[in-house]
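Here is a complete protein record:
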Amino acid sequence: MKKADVFIAHAWRIHDEWQFLVDLLDSIPDLTWRNFSVPWHDPALRSSTDQGLRLIEEIYVSQIVSVDFCVVILDLLRSKSNARWLHKAIETAKAHGVPISAVYFDPQCVSYADPLGLSEPLRGGVEEVTNLIDQYGKEAAFRYL
């Protein structure tokens, strides 16, 4: 059995692509994983204020720094409002030596990888995601609950 702590880059809300990837990871046999990317946001924190934005960014960073790898869903870059948080995830992962992989579901989104410095994006399929787990996951002595 493999275990993995994973951050799936997001923009503070659940997207269909994000949910699909979570469901895909849940379906992989002999994998126990922790989702560090659960979009969490305290509505009392407002990104329109300096303090609120700083606190939100700190929460986002804290979700990334201790994972085994980070996944960036290129399809989310179709919306400019998502770009800020996806760029922050990439910047944070790189700064902390967290491996980053880009995945896509719509082939038209592959081109978003190059400007971000993310080489060889993967199609978001079972085989490709299982290969990420094989590459970055660790042997598990127990199953996460």
In short: The chain has a mean pLDDT of 87. The first strand starts at residue 2 and ends at 8.
